[in-house]
Give the backbone structure.
Amino acid sequence: MSEKYYITTAISYPNGKPHIGHAYELIACDAMARFQRKDGKDVLFLTGTDEHGIKMLQTARKEGIPVRDLADRNAAEFQRMAASLNASNDDFIRTTEERHKIASQAIWKAMEANGDIYKGGYAGWYSVRDEAYYGEEETEVRPDNVRYGPQGTPVEWVEEESYFFRLSAYQDKLLALYESNPAFIAPTERRNEITSFVRSGLKDLSISRTTFDWGIPVPGDEKHVMYVWVDALTNYLTAAGFPDVNASRWKYWPADAHVIGKDITRFHAVYWPAFLMSAGIQLPKRVFGHGFVFNRGEKMSKSVGNVIDPMALAEHYGLDQLRYFLLREVPFGQDGNYSHEAIVNRTNADLANDLGNLAQRSLSMIAKNCEGRVPSPDAMNDTDRAILAQADAALATAREAMAGQATHHALAAIFAVVSDANRYFAAQEPWALKKTDPARMEAVLYTTAEVIRRIAILCTPFIPASADKLLDQLDVPADKRSFADLGDPGALKAGASLPAPQGVFPRYVESETEQA
Ligand code: ME8
């Protein structure tokens, strides 16, 4: 039985259309999920939408439509985004589904049975936008005479009857968790922020609302709906079959990685493990809070029109170009910027020039000089073997990087081989060997094609469609494209006929309006 791997994105609020931040997170998780599948693991990759809560109600009211219609319409947009970004999610959860109501009520009852839920009254500074109460000391009145919370959103005084979760009882347990399991929160700066937040003291958490009814009813007291974060976080359990521990998916729990944006680390690294400890459920192995991506390139807004629509970006630059850029350029965990110039430079340099040209030049030479068949490796020497070994060695580096969600390191390692393969190709001068030593020419072309096969397999998690196109050109069967097929056992067979080579990575050429 293969090892399991369960990875999740945050579930997005469908109170608007998807934006580049959503696309960024989904693409990163997709690369991670695909990487583990290629590495032989049995993967469950989950994404979805977080449909309850007052924000949804407010947006629906503003638009004058029923909240369910708003949820349906925008959930469909998120599903469309996932498909058009080539996301390989195994499930798409919507928190308005029946299975999720069952799971949320079950975790509530388990926390209640453990004595961690009690009824009380709540009065405090509430941010509608954050759906969170804040202590007075966390808020400030600004010159506009409006009181703001720590996230910079307006807060108002709200009083309501509410159920509470005994979060205060989990302070020491959480600190012990962070201490004994330093990998639980990543990257380190997030871990430090969370640790000092918990150290500063935890108050019990209001976990129900009576001021609206767009949510999951509290079991046994239906005038309350659950605080949206109790319901939202539980989605990760729902998709694994909870509360049915005999469900076929329950084997995936605990999740190996919850990948989320840094703004919601507190919910995932403080509330979530506390809820799970209370309910007696195993904790996820890791919470990774990635950075934010921002648009700084003014030029792009002119050329693309709507810069925040990730599907327009993918259409404009090419999906794999966008995926490559986001995964390679921005160190995962840090904030990053995207701009027209940065995307064009990165994808032209790495994809079109380095990988694309290498493939195009070597495969065209094979088509022309070897009758379109895989050349003979008979005259291979140590230099050839060294570049092949280098490609194989990149797997270990990439594997270690991906275990730490460092997509940029994984791609850097793979593209270092691309650069070396280009240097190798230039130094071997197969075009000159054609007359002087045809057997060596064949060996060099064989080696180059084989190194491209290995690189393409390593690239499949990141730029799946383009990597598959490269592998099609080498006539590699679909079931021979895993990491287990790297190395000599899966090597190209001399004499096998190859399809006519085609360019896979077109150069981005500035249109006249962009040059202006
Ligand atoms: O927070 N760059 O939903 P959401 C990178 N429903 N990531 C970004 C981003 C940006 N510019 N903007 C947002 C929610 N994100 C909750 C989650 S999980 C149980 C509930 C990230 O639609 C954000 O950090 O506001 C989050 O991880 C995800 O997009 C969804 O954000």
